[in-house]
C-alpha cells in the first residue's frame, strides 16, 4: 500500500498566481486505488506535464473554496477523469459555493462538468466522504468564501491534513491533531497576519496546542512576501520541535511506517 503526496507548486494568493513566481497547481495524493487532485489552480496541467505526471487515471477532485488559485484547472481535471467527457467517471468533492454558487460567486465548476462525475459531494465542516481507499473529513475555515473547507484525509498509512485557506481559528487544533503530514497554507512569514490567512506564528501556536504533533509540516500556498521559505521553515521548526519543509514544484512525500516519511524533490524549481 503506497501513499504519496506530489506538489505541483507552492504558491497562492493573487500576486504569486498572476506572476506564476510559484506554481499554483495544488497537489495530488496517489494510492493504489485513488488519484486525487487537490486545489488545481492555474497551471496545474502544465506543471503535471513538466513533471511527467499523467492526468489520465485521475479519479477524484477536491476543491476547497471558490477562489481561482484553487479551482481554475478543475474542469480540465474532470475532462481527464472522464476520458474527455466521453464516460461518467470519478468523484468531485467540494463545498457549496464551488458546486452551487453563492452570492457573487458563481459555481466555479459548470453543471455540465459536474454531471459527468459518478458522484458529487458537497461537504460542510465535519462531513465526511468515503472514496475508494480513503476517507475525507471536511474541516472548518474562516476565509472569504463562507463555505470554504479544509480536509483531513484518512489513508491506510495514517492521516494527511490540509488547512485550505483560513485564518487562525481554535477548531483547527482538534481538526488536525494527530495527522502525520500537515499541509498548511501559510501566506506570510512570522507575525505578518492578514485577514483570512495563516502566518508562520499562527501555525506555531496551532501545532504547539496539539496533543499529538505532526511528523512533518509542509508550508504551502506561499505569497510573494514569503521571500525565504527555507529560513522560515527553520524558524517554525525551531519553535515547534518537528520537521518543517516548504512545498516545491515536484516535491514528493511518501508515507512509510509510522515515524518514517521519505521526501525528495524531483526538480529544483520554485
Ligand atoms: Zn482563498
UniProtKB/TrEMBL annotation:
Matches recorded under SUPFAM superfamilies: Metallo-hydrolase/oxidoreductase (SSF56281)
Residue stretches making up the Metallo-beta-lactamase domain: 35-222
Pfam families: Lactamase_B_2
CDD domains, alphabetized: metallo-hydrolase-like_MBL-fold
Name of the protein this chain belongs to: Metallo-beta-lactamase domain-containing protein
Species name: Methanotorris formicicus Mc-S-70
Higher taxonomy: Archaea, Methanobacteriati, Methanobacteriota, Methanomada group, Methanococci
Amino acid at each position: 500500500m503506497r501513499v504519496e503526496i506530489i506538489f505541483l507548486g507552492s504558491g497562492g494568493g493573487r500576486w504569486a498566481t498572476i506572476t506564476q513566481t510559484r506554481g499554483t497547481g495544488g497537489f495530488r495524493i496517489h494510492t493504489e486505488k485513488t488519484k486525487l487532485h487537490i486545489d488545481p489552480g492555474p497551471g496545474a496541467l502544465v506543471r503535471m506535464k513538466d513533471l511527467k505526471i499523467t492526468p489520465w487515471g485521475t479519479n477524484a477532485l477536491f476543491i476547497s473554496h471558490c477562489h481561482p488559485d484553487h479551482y481554475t484547472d478543475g474542469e480540465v481535471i474532470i475532462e481527464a477523469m472522464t476520458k474527455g467527457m466521453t464516460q461518467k467517471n470519478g468523484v468531485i468533492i467540494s463545498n457549496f459555493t464551488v458546486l452551487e454558487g453563492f452570492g457573487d460567486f458563481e459555481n466555479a465548476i459548470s453543471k455540465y462538468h459536474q454531471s459527468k462525475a459518478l458522484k458529487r459531494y458537497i461537504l460542510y465542516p465535519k462531513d465526511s466522504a468515503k472514496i475508494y481507499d480513503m476517507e475525507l473529513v471536511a474541516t472548518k475555515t474562516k476565509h472569504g468564501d463562507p463555505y470554504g473547507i479544509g480536509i483531513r484525509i484518512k489513508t491506510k498509512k495514517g492521516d494527511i491534513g490540509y488547512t485550505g485557506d483560513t485564518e487562525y481559528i481554535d477548531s483547527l487544533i482538534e481538526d488536525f491533531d494527530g495527522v502525520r503530514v500537515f499541509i498548511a497554507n501559510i501566506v506570510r512569514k512570522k507575525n505578518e497576519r492578514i485577514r483570512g490567512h495563516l502566518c508562520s506564528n499562527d501555525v506555531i501556536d496551532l501545532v504547539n496546542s496539539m496533543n499529538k504533533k505532526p511528523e512533518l509540516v509542509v508550508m504551502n500556498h506561499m505569497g510573494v512576501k514569503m521571500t525565504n521559505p527555507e529560513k522560515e521553515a527553520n524558524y517554525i521548526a525551531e519553535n515547534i520541535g518537528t520537521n518543517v519543509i516548504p512545498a516545491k514544484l515536484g516535491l514528493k512525500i511518501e508515507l512509510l511506517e509510522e515515524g518514517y516519511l521519505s521526501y525528495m524533490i524531483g526538480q529544483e524549481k520554485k
